[in-house]
Design a protein that fits this description.
This is Thioredoxin domain-containing protein. It holds the Pfam family Thioredoxin_4. It comes from Leifsonia virtsii. Keywords: Signal. The structure is a single chain. This protein has 238 residues and is an alpha+beta fold. The chain has one domain: Glutaredoxin. The chain has a 7-stranded mixed sheet, with helices on both faces. Strands 6-7 form a two-stranded antiparallel ribbon. The protein contains 9 helices and 9 strands. It starts with a helix and ends with a helix. Helix 1 crosses helix 3 and helix 4 packs across helix 8. The longest helix has 19 residues.
């Protein structure tokens, strides 16, 4: 993530994931007339690495479950990934965890009408359906030179190129026809506000109040976004 994004994240360095200030930083659902609304019917069931009914994309197959609710334009999500992404990737690689990514679209309102958060979520879904092995590298790539809030975000062509660079098959056609995946991400976002939030059939939260929200086996990480030591300890101890 570039320096401007880190500065924005540093401005909210006191945030703990999921607390009210974090919600203020990366929870901007509603109140904007220029947010494109997806009109297709969201998919059901599962396809590739996507559990459409559960609202997440799966990486890995470890016994411990790590759930992350995120927005691709959220600078705090980017800061969390920069600090803790290697730890999560290593835990996926060694079989310790199953990482479940819940893409949300809070920050569509700050991408100049392009619906970037929705489009990025749909592109990640395309990768998850087309080439599940490329999900984690592409997720990480979304936070490399992360678009700033109040920018247009990446174009569909740029998203497809980042996916290819991350090792995915070409997703250009999927991205162009991704209306159902966009609708799925937007529905997940609306559902995250209505609640309750359930993990493996058990209620864990009333609602998602901000991104990133991170749970390890159903327990919410309460520490600092960029405190890698605290997160590693929490991951190991839960």
């Amino acid at each position: 993530m570039g320096r401007p994004s880190l500065r924005r994240a540093a401005a909210v360095a006191v945030l703990a994931i999921g607390v009210a200030v974090a919600a203020a930083g990366c929870s901007l659902l509603g109140g904007a007339s220029n947010v494109p609304a997806a009109t297709d019917a969201p998919p059901k069931g599962s396809d590739g690495a996507v559990d459409f009914d559960g609202g997440f994309i799966t990486v890995g197959d470890g016994a411990k479950k790590v759930d992350i609710w995120f927005d691709a334009m959220c600078p705090v999500c980017g800061a969390f990934e920069q600090a803790n992404g290697k730890t999560l990737a290593s835990a996926v690689d060694d079989g310790s965890i199953t990482l479940r990514l819940h893409p949300l679209t809070f920050l569509d309102a700050v991408s100049n009408g392009t619906g970037y958060s929705t489009r990025a979520a749909a592109a990640l879904t395309c990768v998850a359906v087309t080439d599940p092995n490329a999900v984690l590298p592409f997720y990480q790539a979304l936070y490399t030179d992360q678009p700033e809030e109040n920018s247009d975000g990446l174009t569909d062509k740029q998203l497809a190129q980042r996916a290819s660079d991350a090792g995915s098959q070409d997703i250009s056609t999927c991205v162009a026809d991704s209306g159902p995946y966009q609708a799925w991400a937007q529905r997940n976002t609306a559902d995250s506000q209505k609640g309750p939030i359930e993990v493996d059939g058990k209620k864990v939260l009333d609602t998602i109040k901000g991104t990133p929200t991170v749970l390890v086996d159903g327990k919410q990480y309460p520490g600092g976004v960029t405190d890698a030591k605290a997160f590693s300890k929490f991951l190991a101890g839960n």
